[in-house]
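Morning - zinc ion inputs below, output right after.
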Amino acid sequence: MAKADIKICPYVKCPFPDHEVDISVHPYVRAKNGRYYHEQCFDEEQKAKKRTLEEKADIALFLDLWNKHISNTVNYGVLRKILNEYIMRGVSTDYLVFCLQYIVANRCILNYPNGFKYYVDRREIKDAYEKKQMQKQAKAIDEQLKKQSSQPIGSDSNAPHFAVQKQQSQGFERILNK
Ligand SMILES: [Zn+2]
């Protein structure tokens, strides 16, 4: 086999031995930069890049919300560290943003970065998030069905819907002072 047919796949998590792409055999993609990827590796890298961009946007949104509604003198290093801990544990940045939106909308007590930890695992916030996800899915299906209809679609799709009763702030205070 001609050596020219062997390329090196640049994908960091490439599962092939020595990252070798045999373009005479493997399905491959030639990227804009001229590098040859295994087709599957290329797709995975694209997906990972997209995820990273979404996460960055969510983190920026989170910090902005915190700055506007919680405190504008927060130690961003500490806050980012806490967010990263959750991301490492597999918590989605979408949920972290939702959790902060919930705290703001329900005027829950939150004054400092570590206080956020008391809310992330709260059942009622998780339930509200799941409900929102389900509504999103239902809406997507609904929109698919209505595709040919000329009816306008509600404009409040970006507003979070909170179906859960507002918590007694006393309860939170008790937790925070533990
Ligand atoms: Zn590869």
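Note: The beta strands are 6-8, 20-22, 28-30, 36-38.

O.
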